[in-house]
Amino acid sequence: MTNSVINPIERPAVTQQLSENFILTTLDDLYNWAKMSSLYPMMFGTACCFMEFMAAYASRFDMERYGMIPRATPRQADLMITAGTITMKYAPNLVRLYEQMPEPKYVIAMGACTITGGMFSVDSPTTVRGVDKLIPVDVYIPGCPPRPEAVIDAIIKLRKKIANQSIQELPQLQQTHRYCSITHKMKVVPPIHNGKYLKSPTREAPSEEIAEATGLPLPLALKQQKTDLSTPDS
Question: How far is CA 4 from CA 1, 7, 8, 12, 28, in A?
Answer without folding.
Answer: 9, 9, 9, 14, 38
